[in-house]
């Protein structure tokens, strides 16, 4: 259905509301038509469309130079790249999206978009919703494996990064109509459970009745049991036995395990709830029944070998093998991940499986992906199903070292979020909001700003770089921060409110005209939103969207400072532009997991 609408436009249907596809895709269609017309024998030519770098157009077609280097010296009508560009330009099918075209230097075809076309496209979005601007991806179902903390151990800032980036990518995929399985691959099946359960049995004989109160603070409990494990050899042996009992399904051990998991789960859920992140827990334990069968399959395919008592897979390009059964016969992180991948491909039928952890785990992922290729689960040539590991850098403290508390403990995420909220609340009170708002409004704003600040500070960086965590920086009202952006959005809302006009009615009765140069710049930036999301999600880089959002707010400011809105002759058109900007900003916020505020 999408496609038929998409082609309708090529057949001269000028109904803008029915054009789907990004501006770049629509232009690519036109460019392709002219490549086929100009070079009918070369069916491999694919259109190269980019946002214009110079000031002579909005977009450019970049095919001429490449074509020239292929045909140079051959007889024909072309004597230089420029003439190739000229030929492409001349054969472009007529389209109401284009105002004018020109050819520059080495054959770049510059395209100036038609202002009425841009205006209509924006207006259509306002009428039909931002959903009509969703990019179209070739994937239908994806797994995003993110957050994934370990039970009974701390959920640290690394998991926070995974949670924030993973949620944003999942949102972008969902917006692009991909079905996303949001998987929390919690570490709930490691050998640490033997130690924890044994400690529980020995130190809290009444654990079953006392319930979770017996354990109290799980992190202290973990530390105490670890201490005993390291110091007491007989305890260590009993703990190892306990793992066997647990994995063998012994009811008592199972119940104790569940109780421990439940405490962690509640702590994790509090963080997710505050961050507004939805996840479905499918921890390591879920896949454990699948491990033997999966290893059996790999063994049958001749992948598994014996090495120093362990069972391993040797892979080209690595000097260490991937261990899938430890020398004590136990399974490990890799065997679980192989089983999980098998499950995701065969049972869940996911086409794209995305994992988020710090870059430190890259090798683990590369190795088991490569084993999966050898097993024939993934195509060798990189088609679907496809796996991607998204690594990210460290969060640093002001001392340039790993982010820790003063007593060099791991920072608890709940404390971190409390602090973010407290600081943003203080800021709001300093700006006099306590007197203007109800206490509920103040709370809501403090949370939106505080948590938004933490998320944006993370997402705006290229995920591979380390970044320094600083409340001061992330709450700077004038920087490239969530606070600045939330203010910008609230200001637009207030412009519309103060106009006294009913935007819904303006949408129905009014129209948009782009005359002033800053209106045109704003208009073009707005209609580029779909392709920015497409880029962000194909390259798995949310910072692309942050950059777009920041630029949008700057471009809006320029427009607003040069084009009077309320009381001007162009009031209706300009109010609609304000509304479109606010809608696109809100969608950016949504995709970044930030809650927008209508007044601030
Ligand atoms: N639990 C792991 C950790 O905290 C992350 C798990 C990532 N997902 C996976 N399928 N290996 O480092």
Question: Could you please describe the fold and organization of this structure?
Answer:
The structure is a single chain. This protein has 600 residues and is α/β, with parallel strands linked by helices. It has 25 helices and 14 strands. It has helices at 2-10, 23-38, 64-71, 81-91, 115-128, 157-175, 192-203, 207-210, 218-231, 233-247, 251-275, 284-287, 291-300, 333-346, 362-374, 413-430, 433-436, 439-459, 471-474, 482-499, 503-509, 517-527, 529-538, 543-562, 571-592, and strands at 49-51, 59-61, 98-104, 108-113, 141-145, 179-184, 280-281, 304-307, 310-313, 322-325, 352-358, 386-392, 395-396, 467-468. It has a five-stranded parallel sheet with strand order 7-6-5-11-12, sandwiched between helices. Strands 1-2-4-3 form a four-stranded antiparallel sheet. Strands 8-9-10 form a three-stranded antiparallel sheet. The protein is flat, with a radius of gyration of 29 Å. Residues 1-18 have low confidence and may be disordered. Bound molecules: arginine (ARG). Residues 145, 148-150, 185, 187, 337, 340, 355, 357 line the site of arginine (ARG).
Summarize the structure.
The chain is an alpha/beta fold and 600 residues long. The protein has 25 helices and 14 strands.
What attributes characterize this protein structure?
600 residues; binds arginine; alpha/beta; 4-stranded antiparallel β-sheet; 5-stranded parallel β-sheet
What ions, cofactors and ligands are bound? arginine
Largest sheet: 5 strands, parallel
Number of strands: 14
Helix content range of the residues, please? 40-55%
Helix and strand composition category: alpha/beta
Distance between the amino and carboxyl termini? 42 Å
Beta-strand portion reads 5-15%
Tertiary shape: flat
Keywords: Acetylation, Aminoacyl-tRNA synthetase, ATP-binding, Ligase, Nucleotide-binding, Protein biosynthesis
Protein name: arginine--tRNA ligase
GO molecular function, one term: arginine-tRNA ligase activity
InterPro entries: aa-tRNA-synth_I_CS (IPR001412), Arg-tRNA-ligase (IPR001278), Arg-tRNA-synth_N (IPR005148), Arg-tRNA-synth_N_sf (IPR036695), ArgRS_core (IPR035684), DALR_anticod-bd (IPR008909), Rossmann-like_a/b/a_fold (IPR014729), tRNAsynth_Ia_anticodon-bd (IPR009080)
């Amino acid at each position: 259905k999408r496609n038929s609408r998409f082609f309708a436009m090529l057949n001269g249907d000028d109904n803008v509301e029915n054009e789907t596809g990004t501006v770049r895709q629509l232009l690519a269609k036109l460019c392709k038509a002219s490549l086929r017309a100009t070079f009918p024998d070369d069916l491999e030519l694919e259109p190269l469309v980019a946002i214009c770098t110079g000031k002579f157009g909005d977009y450019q077609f970049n095919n001429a130079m490449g074509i020239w280097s292929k045909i140079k010296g051959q007889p024909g009508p072309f004597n230089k790249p420029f003439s190739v560009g000229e030929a492409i330009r001349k054969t472009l099918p007529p389209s109401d999206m284009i105002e004018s075209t020109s050819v520059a230097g080495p054959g770049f075809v510059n395209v100036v978009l038609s202002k009425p076309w841009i205006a209509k496209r924006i207006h259509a979005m306002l009428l039909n919703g931002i959903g009509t601007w969703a990019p179209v991806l070739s994937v239908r179902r994806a797994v995003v494996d993110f957050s994934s903390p370990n039970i009974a151990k701390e959920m640290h800032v690394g998991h926070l990064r995974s949670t924030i980036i993973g949620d944003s990518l999942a949102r972008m995929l969902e917006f692009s109509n991909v079905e996303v399985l949001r998987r929390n691959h919690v570490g709930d099946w490691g050998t640490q459970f033997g130690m924890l359960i044994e400690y529980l049995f020995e130190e809290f004989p009444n654990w079953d009745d006392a319930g979770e109160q017996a354990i109290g603070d799980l992190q202290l409990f973990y530390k105490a049991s670890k201490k005993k494990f390291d110091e007491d050899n007989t305890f260590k042996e009993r703990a190892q036995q306990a793992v066997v009992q647990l994995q063998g399904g012994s009811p008592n051990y199972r119940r104790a395990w569940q109780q421990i998991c439940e405490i962690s789960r509640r702590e994790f859920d509090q963080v997710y709830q505050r961050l507004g992140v939805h996840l479905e827990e499918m921890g390591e334990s879920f896949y454990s029944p699948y491990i033997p069968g999966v290893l059996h399959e790999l063994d049958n395919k001749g992948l598994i070998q014996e090495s120093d008592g362990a069972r391993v897979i040797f892979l080209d390009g690595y000097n260490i093998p991937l261990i899938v059964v430890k020398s004590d016969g136990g399974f490990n992180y890799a065997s679980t991940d192989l089983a999980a991948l098998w499950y995701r491909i065969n049972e869940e039928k996911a086409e794209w499986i995305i994992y988020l952890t710090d870059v430190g785990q890259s090798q683990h992922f590369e190795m088991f992906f490569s084993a999966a290729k050898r097993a024939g689960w993934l195509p060798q040539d990189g088609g679907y199903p496809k796996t991607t590991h998204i690594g990210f850098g460290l969060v640093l403290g002001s001392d340039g070292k790993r982010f820790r508390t003063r007593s060099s403990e791991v920072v608890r995420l709940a404390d971190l979020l409390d602090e973010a909220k407290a600081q943003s609340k203080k800021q709001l009170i300093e700006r006099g909001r306590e007197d203007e708002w109800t206490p509920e409004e103040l709370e809501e704003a403090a949370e939106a700003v505080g948590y938004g600040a933490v998320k944006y500070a993370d997402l705006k960086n290229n995920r591979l770089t380390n970044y320094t965590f600083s409340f001061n920086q992330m709450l700077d009202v004038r920087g490239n921060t969530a606070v600045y952006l939330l203010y910008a959005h609230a200001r637009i809302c207030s412009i519309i409110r103060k106009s006294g006009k009913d935007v819904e009615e303006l949408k129905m009765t009014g129209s948009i005209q782009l005359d002033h140069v800053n209106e045109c710049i704003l208009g073009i930036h707005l209609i580029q939103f779909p392709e920015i999301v497409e880029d962000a999600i194909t390259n798995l880089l949310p910072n692309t969207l942050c950059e777009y959002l920041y630029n949008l707010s700057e471009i809006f400011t320029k427009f607003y400072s040069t084009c009077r809105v309320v009381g001007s002759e162009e009031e209706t058109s300009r109010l609609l532009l304000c509304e479109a900007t606010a809608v696109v900003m809100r969608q950016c916020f949504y995709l970044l997991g930030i809650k927008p505020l209508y007044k601030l």
